[in-house]
Amino acid sequence: MPELEVNGHHYEIHAEVGESLADTLRDDLGLTGTKVACDEGHCGACTVLVDGVPTLSCITLLHAVDGASVTTIEGLREHPMVHAFVRADAMQCGFCTPGQIVSAVSLVEANRDPSTDDIRHAMAGNLCRCGAYPKIEEAIRTWRG
Amino acid sequence: MARLIRTEKEVEGRYEEVWLVVEEDALEQWPSGPREIVGRPATRIDGLERARGEAVYTADLKLPGMLHTAVLRSPFAHARVVRIDLAGALASPGVHAAIGPEDISQLEEECGFQGAAVAAVCADTFAQARAAVAAIDVEWEQLDVLLDPDEAIARGEQLDEPRVRTRGDYEQGLADADVVLEGEFRTQVVLHNSLETHQSVVQWVGDTLEVYISTQYIWGIRDEVAKGIGIPADKVRVICHYMGGGFGSKNSPDDYTFIAIELAKRTHRPVRCALTRREENIATGNRNATIQRLTIGAKSDGTLTALGGEYVNAVGWSGWVAPTEGPMQLLYSCPNVKTTTWGAKINQPPMKAFRAPGFVEGTFGVESLLDELAAKLDLDPLELRRKNYAHHDAADERPFSGKSLMECYRRAEPHWDRRLEVRSRSTETVKRGVGLASQIWYGGGGPPSYAWIRVGSDGRATVVTAMQDIGTGTKTAMAQIAAEELGIPLEHVTVSLGDSARGPYAAISAGSSTTPSMGPAVRAAAADAKRQIIEIAAQRYHLEERVLDLRGGTVVSADGNLSTPLEEVVGLLDDAQILGKGARGPNPTGMQVLTFGVQVAEVAVDIETGEIWVERIAAVHDIGRVINPLGASSQIEGGIIQGIGHTLSEERLHDPKTGRILTTGLDAYKLPTFADVPEIVSELVDEPDGHLTNLGSKGLGEPPIVPTAAAIANAIRDATGADVRQLPISREEMLRALREAEQRTAEKEKRGAPAGV
User: Fold this and answer.
1) Do A26 and B634 touch (CB under 8 A)?
2) Which of A:30-89 have CB within 8 Å of B?
3) Prediction pTM value
């Protein structure tokens, strides 16, 4: 039975082989902050951190990350990046926002003062149909407040 | 007093005559300029729950016992179901019910496009439902496919009568012209691709149907569902607290909602019907392709004498004929205009409104051709637009309620003046240039729309209205308007929306109408509540009402002797509450209410590869009074970025033989990403429309996407001399236009004209 540490809590998960990590998080653990928008790994809405690495949870099999430590948007509630996004108005409909924030957190944890190019490179996998990109860039640039 | 009027109602450029009960708008507009709260930047009042993933979208909803649906959709562009057998599906694991064409009208035997719904199955899990759909036994008869819009028109396969609009004498206008230009422009099918796909969760509670749906129009869903299944509208409750994007595609219940309702009825369970991304890209509507055959006649000084347009909208199997001719009709003062707009019925998925439908496509055509004229006559494109400025709506001979486009042009000058410097940064192979285009679109909103405001003994206010915030930030704008009028801090206002059972009727979030429709009603409700608070204070402190005011959360008297926190005044009330109500007043009679603007684009073109980079876009728009400059700038940026996608990368492709869709996933359909975003500078004129409501505000959802394509195309011409005629401006189209421009130059040289003239 696969085991996960999610946002600091330990879980043993009853799931059939073939279940995606996104489905585990959303359906089994009720962590619906992680969104699924394409379910094919193209849009980045489902991004979570697996052992600190931004990962597309919709195309990651639960059984393939057995024993991993997973951080979702729910585990980043108090992260300054969340407030930076609100402050900069870095969202419109908000559906891609949790995935954007997870990617952004991963970026600044590794590089506390990312350049514009760093930001654009790190965030290239997160689509936003509303086009909040300029404000997302601003949020990441000013994340420490 | 309530007044019954017969009036014209506009949504997305479509007009209808309706009876309306309106209440007179008794409030004077605020003076222009930022106020305490309105007109100043505010962060979203629901930003935190969206950012933290706590906002529950329809996609996140899980009701006890809820079943999941998969839909069988036609794999062919045109086919008939000869025989269908649901037995295999019904026998599959986890399945609770299956329905086909005989069960509800939304499931069809004759499928006019790939993606038409044929049958549906609900099961314990979505995977089970999907497996069961694969077990449905269908025999198809494939039918002839009609894909060419021109051929469809010739054959009479039209969705409506051709729409002919004329003014003046078009032929005479052409005869009077010193120069006549013609051009054929083509635009592509563009997909909304809201990140939350179309979906509903429905359940029957007693005799009431609850519909949780990702929608732009709670009340429209309520009425269409009630009508569709034949129950009273009050027995349908529609709920949408958050929704993940719509852009015009989520105004109606569509097949998926009716499928869920029928399956819920049969299983006595809550049922979810959510489309996959690949279904989303074939079955939920799109911006239709167009062919635009345009003619422009002008005097050598640039005065327009004739404008003509033959517009073919490739609507698809269903939809409506969007006003592609609108910009040609409305932008300029040209006395002689003739347009004909056709709607071709072809075997492609249905058209749906998409952010300024028709005007985005039509602006690309007419504003591109206008710049071709400017190049031909060697006139400054900005001056050419000023010369032909429309001071009134010449199409319908009526005044504009307000128009500050000239001011937009003035404010755009510093951006326009950059073109020499931009061009000078060209290299041998990368050419740079600057182009501009004007924006015209609707956005005045209208009645009916209602709001209530509740003020409790803690002095805090709740705006209650059954509207929806589709991500534009209207919820925040409503809180700002209520706080401003009441005279209390913004953080003391909450907004309750998203539930047809818990608030009065509110307008659709389409046609850039939410703020201009709802805002005046919210202000009226706040004024009503404030009046009651002042009445109570007057009695409590033995003062006259006229000397009392509520400012910054404090009840004050004109002489300064009284200054008491609001909560002390209303604290007297214990559990009693002050209830204010407000309604949207009528639009000004006999006036055309429109939004305006101009965008200036800077591009770089690699003339060897045809690659195009948009480097900067400056946008100046006139939407009357601005409620929230921060949210407004986000709308402008988002519109421009969608516009860049529309201009350069987005296109739904189909196989020209079979009509099958080739781009159904986000791997093949190219949405703009972070890497595609230029520097964006935005500015709003922020002058209230003196004739429009107690706010003077218009909407901003759609205007920013309208001129982007034309501005980019005109910048490409400035950079390279090439006339691009087709969206998206792919590398092939760019190289074709460059070759054509080269040939033109070569021919001129052959005729002995000096190069470059």
Assistant:
1) no
2) 30-40, 42-43, 45, 72-74, 77, 82-83, 85-87, 89
3) 0.97
